């Protein structure tokens, strides 16, 4: 595990491309993670993960494949590649499938005004979309 | 002799292929009661046929029984959801069908984190021994 410290230093010293280093250190894309942005929020994902989104994705049905527009980071235990404006999509293969569209459990808010016994109840059950990371590998 | 450790495979729907968890929906209606009027309209005007053609992975069963109309949704994890549809119009029933067909049958819950993962941590567990010897905290 001490190797990690050494390899990160060598990336700056030598001019090997980080994608090649990732290919060697990611155990055949098995030990790979990515940080993908969905509606501008970062999600650290690996292959097979479930992502719970607290809203309904527009124009998406259950079973659909979803592409990620912006991926800011890919990394393995030893090497990471960061790019602020998004990594070139030709370098990696990443998609997710929509698994479930449900609602969160109903929650009740009781509003009461002062000096008035009357209460009003507000019911809220927001939508929830669950997606599973279907593929995450380097091309 | 070395014996291999058997490992049970984890069911991860949506990884590779996706199977709709809602495999069967029973539409229960009454031939006499006024609360089943919407469902009776739905069965006669051909909207249900169109809906069933769009969802080929589920079976639609129609059952006549005295009382208020019901949708009984059967899911892959041996659960059943009963949905009351009394006094609803045909378009409202289609909305209910569309909502319940996209669920997985699990109990509704609010997940207060972004990602649910079965994988081990990518970067491993941190140890103070990863630090170089001269940078370590000395007691």
Automatic annotation (TrEMBL), chain A:
It comes from the Eukaryota. Coiled coil: none annotated. InterPro entries: bL21-like (IPR028909), bL21-like_sf (IPR036164). GO terms for molecular function: structural constituent of ribosome. It holds the Pfam family Ribosomal_L21p. GO terms for cellular component: mitochondrial large ribosomal subunit. Belongs to the bacterial ribosomal protein bL21 family. This is Large ribosomal subunit protein bL21m. It comes from Candida verbasci. The lineage of its organism: Eukaryota, Fungi, Dikarya, Ascomycota, Saccharomycotina.
UniProtKB/TrEMBL annotation, chain B:
One of its GO terms (molecular function) is structural constituent of ribosome. InterPro entries: Ribosomal_mL43, Ribosomal_mL43/mS25/NADH_DH, Thioredoxin-like_sf. GO terms for cellular component: mitochondrial large ribosomal subunit. Residues 31-104 form the Ribosomal protein/NADH dehydrogenase domain. It comes from the Eukaryota. Its main location: mitochondrion. One of its GO terms (biological process) is mitochondrial translation. It is found in: Mitochondrion. Keywords: Mitochondrion, Ribonucleoprotein, Ribosomal protein. Belongs to the mitochondrion-specific ribosomal protein mL43 family. PANTHER family: 39S RIBOSOMAL PROTEIN L43, LARGE RIBOSOMAL SUBUNIT PROTEIN ML43. This is Large ribosomal subunit protein mL43. It comes from Candida verbasci. The lineage of its organism: Eukaryota, Fungi, Dikarya, Ascomycota, Saccharomycotina.
């Amino acid at each position: 595990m001490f190797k990690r410290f050494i390899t990160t230093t060598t990336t700056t010293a030598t001019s090997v491309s980080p994608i090649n280093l990732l290919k060697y250190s990611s155990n055949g894309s098995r030990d790979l993670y990515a940080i993908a942005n969905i509606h501008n929020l970062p999600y650290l994902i690996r292959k097979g993960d479930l992502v719970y989104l607290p809203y309904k994705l527009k124009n998406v049905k259950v079973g659909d494949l979803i592409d990620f527009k912006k991926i800011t980071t890919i990394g393995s235990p030893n090497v990471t590649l960061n790019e602020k404006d998004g990594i070139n999509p030709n370098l990696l293969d990443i998609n997710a499938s929509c698994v479930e569209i449900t609602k969160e459990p109903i929650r009740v808010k009781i509003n009461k005004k002062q000096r008035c016994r009357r209460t009003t109840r507000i019911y809220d059950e927001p939508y929830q979309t669950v997606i599973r990371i279907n593929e995450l590998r380097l091309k | 002799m070395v014996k291999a450790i058997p490992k049970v495979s984890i069911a991860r729907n949506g990884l590779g292929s996706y199977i709709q968890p809602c495999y069967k929906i029973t539409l229960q209606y009454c031939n006499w009661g006024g609360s089943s009027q919407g469902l009776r309209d739905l069965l006669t005007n051909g909207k249900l046929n169109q809906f069933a053609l769009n969802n080929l992975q589920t079976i639609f069963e129609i059952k006549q029984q005295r009382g208020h109309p019901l949708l009984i949704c059967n899911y892959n994890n041996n659960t059943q959801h009963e949905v009351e549809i009394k006094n609803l119009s045909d378009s409202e029933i289609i909305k209910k069908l569309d909502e319940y067909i996209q669920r997985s049958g699990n109990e509704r819950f609010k997940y207060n984190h972004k990602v649910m993962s079965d994988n081990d941590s990518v970067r491993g567990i941190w140890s103070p021994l990863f630090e170089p010897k001269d940078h370590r905290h000395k007691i």
